[in-house]
Amino acid sequence: MTPEVAQEKREQMLRDGYCVIPDILSPEFLQELRRESDHLNDTMEHHPDTKYQGTHLGIRFEDNATMKRLAEWQPSRQAVEEMQFGDFNHVGSLIVLTKEPFAPALYWHQDWMRWNDPLSCTPWPQTIFLSYYLEDTSVENGCLKVIPGTHLKRIPLHDQLVTAHEQGARFIEDDHPLMFSDHPDQVDVESKAGSLVLADARVLHAAYKNQTDRRRNLLLLWHNRPETVPDYWEDEIPQMVQDRDPQAAYPGTRIPGQYLLA
After folding, report:
1. What is the pLDDT of residue 163?
2. Going by C-beta distance under 8 Å and a sequence separation of 6 or more, which residues neighbour residue 242?
3. Closest Cα partner for 223 from 4, 51, 13, 3?
4. What is the C-alpha to C-alpha distance for residues 131 and 97, in angstroms, rounded to an integer?
5. 162 by DSSP, 3-state: which?
6. What is the DSSP secondary-structure string of 13-82?
């Protein structure tokens, strides 16, 4: 990326909570990842509780050379460093989130689990996910959809949702009128195979159902950064972040509280 594009992508992450970087994977590596994803999906057990998310296979990099190569993929590392996100590091594993043919939609949710911590209101991301789509995505095969800005701003939907994943949403009915609804501010993130989608863990997102007879493969890697102010940040730091006690214990929760402001 040029410095101008890298800055644009970083600013989009800060403003909207997501961005797309096209053509990150080489055609050869893309094919290798498809083969390995198919192998894993065909040989590992799919837990029925994760049907909305996808096949949800946890793969440790120390156990899988192909996925370790993805974690260390230099074009991706270069891209995040050019965005000045070089202090983010992966957690040692990824999740295969393949939507099988005709698989249901993924409900609205956000993935931040530290809403009792004043870090929740940082204007910069603390936890991000890197999503590699191995096929072109569209509304028809289950592309991502995002409500921009909801990583920083509370909207009514935040207080109406069933709590994410194992804390409730995995067990809802597939015709839930709110969890699978469309939102007037949503953006459909249709991407090309081999693209990298970055998103802030706090942003509200979901995915359409796969209406096709082909798999839609997604590999998702979580990344965290230190609990410090990023080097690139030159604007105001929220008072709640300045006053945060780094030695305090903040109980984890998926439910947004006082640190997500309207």
Report:
1. 87
2. none
3. 13
4. 10
5. coil
6. HHHHSEEEE-S-S-HHHHHHHHHHHHHHHHHSPPPGGGTTT-S-EEEEGGG-HHHHHHHT-HHHHHHHHH
Angle, alpha carbons 5-6-7 (nearest 5°): 90
What is the per-residue pLDDT for 168? 77
DSSP letter for 103, please: P
Q: 79 by DSSP, 3-state: which?
A: helix
Strands 93-96 and 57-60: antiparallel
> 220: which 2 tokens?
């998702």
d(CA 136, CA 113): 30
- 92/79 Cα distance (integer angstroms): 19
Are 223 and 88 in contact by the 8 Å Cβ rule? The answer is yes
Q: What are 242's two structure tokens?
A: 């300045």
Distance CA 114, CA 53 (A): 21
How far the first Cα of the chain sits from its last, in Å, is 35
Say yes or no to pLDDT of 247 above 80.
yes
Residue pLDDT, tens place only, 101-139? 999 999 999 999 999 999 999 999 999 999 999 999 999
Residue 137 is predicted with a pLDDT of: 98
Q: How far is CA 25 from CA 105, 123, 131, 175, in A?
A: 26, 30, 12, 36
Say if domain 3-227 classifies as CATH 3.90.1010.10. no
Tell me the per-residue pLDDT of 88-104, one tens digit each, with 9 for 90 and over. 999 999 999 999 999 99
Q: How confident is the model at residue 164 (pLDDT cuts 50, 70, 90)?
A: confident
